[in-house]
Amino acid sequence: xxxxxxxxxxxxxxxxxxxxxxxxxxxxxxxxxxxxxxxxxxxxxxxxxxxxxxxxxxxxxxxxxxxxxxxxxxxxxxxxxxxxxxxxxxxxxxxxxxxxxxxxxxxxxxxxxxxxxxxxxxxxxxxxxxxxxxxxxxxxxxxxxxxxxxxxxxxxxxxxxxxxxxxxxxxxxxxxxxxxxxxxxxxxxxxxxxxxxxxxxxxxxxxxxxxxxxxxxxxxxxxxxxxxxxxxxxxxxxxxxxxxxxxxxxxxxxxxxxxxxxxxxxxxxxxxxxxxxxxxxxxxxxxxxxxxxxxxxxxxxxxxxxxxxxxxxxxxxxxxxxxxxxxxxxxxxxxxxxxxxxxxxxxxxxxxxxxxxxxxxxx
Length: 363
Ligand code: DPM
What we know:
Helices cover about 35% and strands about 20% of the residues. With about 375 residues, the chain is α/β, with parallel strands linked by helices. The protein has 3 domains: about 1-105 and about 210-230, D-Maltodextrin-Binding Protein, domain 2; about 115-205, Periplasmic binding protein-like II (D-Maltodextrin-Binding Protein, domain 2, 3-Layer(aba) Sandwich), CATH 3.40.190; about 235-363, Double Stranded RNA Binding Domain (2-Layer Sandwich), CATH 3.30.160.40. Strands 2-1-3-10-4 form a 5-stranded mixed beta sheet, sandwiched between helices. Strands 7-6-8-5-9 form a 5-stranded mixed beta sheet, sandwiched between helices. The longest helix has 20 residues, at about 325-345. The radius of gyration is 20 Å and the shape is globular. Ligand DPM binds near residues 142, 181 and 253.
């Protein structure tokens, strides 16, 4: 029986996920959170392999496919085979197909990038490594930023699941250190492998890094209603600003873009950067906006049974949770900072990065 015939609010809720240990763990965590909200939910996990999991011999940005980690899952979602899909927010393309949306954004864990040193370099920092030491990462964003600060280091692609990467580091002499998202290591329970996390002065993080996204069909209101309770307000606001930035630049994982956002005293702060592949060029801007409390929302709008598919971010949020006004404010900050960078010549840098990346793909 197709799941669409079942009652998502009372019967089986099917969750599609990648098969990697991290993806399974993230999905199980979301299941746990959903069960806390409604013990009676009957949830089934449907593991699937994606292109990103299958292509292990090439660095990721060169595989020439958009939405590498999400495509098969999105097909299953659109086909009604599953009700929802759990992904790392940073693996979500900035634009989703119109029939799909992000219906929940979980609380962000540490969004910074982490240095994992080879055991033989215990206690060292990148600054202490010899010239020519090899750093494992396939992220154009990390390479571009770190080349600026450490022109003496070499960067080499490393693929595979987190476990595979750590094994490659430990067991071979190919890498002196890896750069990985702190969030992935923390979720896997391997926080002790983090030598230290990179300061955003040295390395801004990826849009959405550290947050989980729950994707559903845009018209599946029963499922949207169930999962929307998982939303974390601050994370949603930050992710909307970050995704609006990415979408305005038409960025993806084939060009180096990076961000930092935080909320303090009702102000949303954002720093965003665009880099040439070799890091020789960098455009970085900072902006902030006031998250004005919206009295109407508390008094009137909040009671409405409506949701907003947020401009620029492909994120749907019920009026019960966040005022639509705040969502717009956040989206505009991301858009404006991107526009500022475009005015300063970001388009040329990104086009050139994309072109070079495609060229090296043909070799
Ligand atoms: C994206 C990038 C990487 C992942 C590019 C980037 C890293 C690729 C690499 C978009 N997705 O960050 O600039 O290191 O070769 C990925 C990880 C997580 C989600 C692992 C990681 C876990 C953290 C999270 C791969 N996607 O970045 O170390 O959930 O945010």
